[in-house]
Amino acid sequence: MTDVLEPYRMTYGKVALDGLHNTRDLGGLPAEAGHVLPRRLLRSGSLASATPGDLDVLRNAYDVRLVIDLRTDEEAARWPDPMDSMPDARLVRLPVFRAPGGADAREAMTALGEKLASGELDVAGLFADLYPRFVLGEDGVAAYRGFFRELLELEEGAALWHCSAGKDRCGMASVLVETALGVPRDLVERDYLATNELIEAKGSARNMFDVGGVDAHYLHAALDAIDGAYGSLDGYLANALGVDDAARAELRHRFVSA
To answer: 6-102+120-199+213-257 has which CATH code?
Structure first.
């Protein structure tokens, strides 16, 4: 049987950029009654490392009109998005969780990232604990609810959402929107795990979110927590995030082609 993901899986929608190494176009993913439209839904790591050429591609080739930043306030302040170079795009900040403010918190996150990178701390255990907080914490629910609200209000151009490395908070947003668009669960998981093939190893971590890749165990920890709290991912989308049948139909109308 032909692999329905094969045309997409060749590159997992990777956008060829110089400074950004995990920017991907969801276009081409099989969805309910069609495929995700190209050049409408982009996931990425922080735009702070984008080159002028990268920004030109996002601005002109992809017509990015909405940038959703899922990072903490501290991350956004330290590595701001270059919105001056994207004058037609609107920035919306939706922190999945909020770290305590101030320089001490920034230093603590950097130190934690360094310990994780050096192996002093257990990466798998930390992220398996964090993922349920992403989706069930008060900030996370508000962020992902806002994420869908912004997608439903986007009239033209592309939406791009990002966190720090484009793998965890951004990865969960991608899992959620792909599910809402009717992408089969096994393909959603394979797309989530594709980060491990695309992300470049970093010599040093800016913070804990820059460490390592992703693991199915992290995703399953979030999905198990959702099942425990809401019965299913569909129940979570509808009851926590407000993405009911009507909203899902509208999302598919906007972002899926037959």
So the answer is: 3.90.190.10
